[in-house]
Amino acid sequence: MRKVTKIFEVYQFDELGEEEQTKALNSIIEILLETPYEFQPPNVKRAWDEAEEMQTPWFFREYIIEYAKDEVFEIARNNEYLKNGDMLD
Q: Which letter, b or e, does each residue of 35-70 get, where b requires 16 or more Cβ atoms within 10 Å of its Cβ?
């Protein structure tokens, strides 16, 4: 048996290209979609409520961007990424 160590370059959100930033933002929105309502930030709850009130759950992503853009970008900037936009676990 042998052990191998692989070194990855790690990037901040603002260091990524536009396509990679979009991928990162989509990953964050996916996480928010899977997070139970009671654990959501207030503006994400607002987006959730709007989607339910309008009976348009398929627009939840758009409502998140409309109401919680700052929170999504804050989450993005508090994480690290691989060059391709994948978030580090």
A: eeeeebbebbebbbebbeeeeeeeebbebbeebbee
- Work out how many domains the chain is built from and give that number: 1
How many angstroms separate the CA atoms of 7 and 69, rounded? 33
Please give the model's pTM, rounded to 2 decimal places: 0.83
Mean pLDDT by 10 residues, the chain (89 residues): 93 97 94 91 91 88 90 95 93
Domain limits at 58? 22-81
Under 8 Å between Cβ of 83 and 20: yes
